[in-house]
Design brief:
This protein starts with 5 loop residues before the first helix and ends in an 8-residue tail after the last helix. The chain is globular and about 65 Å long. Helix 2 runs antiparallel to helix 3 and helix 3 crosses helix 7. It is built from 14 helices and 14 strands. The longest helix is centred in the last third of the chain and has 22 residues. The strands form 4 sheets. It has a 7-stranded mixed β-sheet with strand order 3-2-10-11-12-9-13, sandwiched between helices. A 3-stranded antiparallel β-sheet has the order 5-6-7, covered by helices on one side.
Length: about 425
């Protein structure tokens, strides 16, 4: 959301943001509570560093090393991915600058959050790192890069959330003459003599000059192309699930009239151990939407409790008969309702529970994921180019570049457009 950044420029081109879009700023990334003690990861450099030092138990050297790197990333503007142009069209990198960058990040780049947390003595700092960023497989460098973006003010939330943001993008697309066909699941990408010719929808063939697949890449490769495309990197990752895990959420959503005005938006709290999906957990992670009045109705605020899941959890849920799956959703909805009502004075009404299977049903998501492989230790953000070995077929979407997300998906769409412009001999640098 920060003006002047590459991603902000892209949001404005897409219509997702404009000068009239109101941006909400929150005070923190998240907070963690352990045995009555709370550590808040603030969106301010000095305040956040002071908070970590206040909870230090002989961890000053590790904390200073952490914030020294963030300071360097900010000053050298290493907070955004290097994606002004697609990988194939980038000039030869400055090796001296590259070596300097690697020298600065190597220590944290080689550590997962889980391994990094072991270098701290403070139990609450350990918890803050182990439960951050959805899961602790992520490398520590990515966590610090994320904090750097928050510290420079790139942390705003557009009023109206994703609903309004989506509508602005759709309206921008339609204003340019674009067309949208809803309820039109693509069954096949038409390929003739190594050239993408179009798509098949409900038995009807639709021909085009170019095809860009923006759906789940695994589904595109396995179902729409029938493995008619080189997938070496994906096969490598998928064949080593312990090293390259896929992850998702079970989410229980509630509405309540509890006032969250003075509450951190994202909170993680240690609670007595409990079990779901044959695994034990000892925390509750939740997010409230009371920071945005447009997301409230008749005084009700939405709360989402998020439980991180992995491939084995997806497999477990997939194996359940329908009745048992629905019973699981009911049980988890009741459990978190009891937890929330025990922490706050007020009633929490269950809206719905969704799981990796929900993501799969709506989006053909591989293993029910909503993000690709996490950026594990030593892992580079680049996974795959938007270009394929089928002529006139390009890929877009979050699976191309870890750690995924809406911004990354949009950047890959931009990359695909640039590659097409380059293929047509047109200017691709100034879009």
């Amino acid at each position: 959301t920060k003006k002047g950044t590459m991603i902000n420029k892209m949001w404005r081109e897409l219509g997702a943001l404009d000068d009239s879009t109101e941006i909400i700023k929150t005070d923190s990334f998240y907070s963690v509570t352990l045995d009555g003690e709370t550590l808040t990861v603030y969106n301010d450099f000095d305040k956040c560093k002071a908070e970590f030092l206040a909870h230090s138990q002989g961890d000053e050297e590790e904390i200073n090393r952490m914030f020294d790197l963030i300071d360097w990333l900010i000053k050298t503007e290493h907070l955004e991915p290097e994606l002004e142009v697609p990988y194939e069209l980038q000039e030869k990198p400055n090796m001296r600058a590259m070596m300097d960058f690697l020298r600065h990040i190597t220590y944290h780049f080689k550590l997962s959050l889980k391994e990094w947390s072991k270098k701290f003595n403070s139990p609450i700092i350990k918890m803050a790192l182990n439960y951050s960023l959805i899961n602790n497989y992520f490398n520590a460098f990515y966590f610090l890069q994320t904090l750097g973006n928050l510290f420079v003010g790139n942390d705003g939330l557009p009023v109206g959330g994703s609903h309004n943001m989506r509508d602005r993008i759709v309206n921008r697309y339609l204003s340019l003459g674009g067309k949208i066909f809803y309820n039109s699941d693509v069954s096949k990408i038409i390929v003739e003599d190594g050239v993408a010719k179009g798509i098949e929808v409900k038995g009807k063939e639709i021909y085009a000059d170019y095809v860009i697949s923006a759906i789940d890449t695994h589904y595109c490769l396995d179902k729409l192309l029938g493995n008619d495309l080189s997938t070496t990197e994906y096969q490598k990752f998928d064949n080593e699930p312990e090293k390259y895990p896929t992850y998702s959420f079970v989410i229980a959503s509630y509405r309540t009239k509890v006032d969250f005005t003075n509450e951190e938006v994202d909170q993680i709290k240690k609670i007595p151990e409990y079990s779901f999906m044959n695994k034990k957990y000892d925390y509750i992670s939740y997010r409230h939407y009371g920071y945005d009045k447009e997301l409230m109705t008749d005084g009700y605020t939405t709360i989402q409790v998020m439980l991180t899941t992995f491939k084995e959890d997806y497999d477990y849920l997939k194996s359940l008969p329908r009745a048992q799956y629905m019973a699981f959703k009911e049980e988890i909805g009741k459990f978190y309702k009891t937890q929330l009502e025990g922490m706050y004075e007020g009633e929490f009404e269950l809206i719905d529970v969704w799981s990796p299977l929900t993501n799969e049903r709506y989006n053909h998501s591989y293993n029910g994921t909503f993000m690709p492989y996490p950026l594990i230790e030593r892992m580079n953000q680049q996974i795959r180019s938007a270009k394929t070995d089928i002529k006139n077929l390009y890929l877009a979407g979050q699976w191309l570049i870890s750690p995924g997300g809406v911004a990354v998906s949009s950047l890959t769409g931009r990359m695909a457009a640039q590659l097409i412009l380059h293929n047509e001999g047109m200017d691709y640098k100034n879009i």
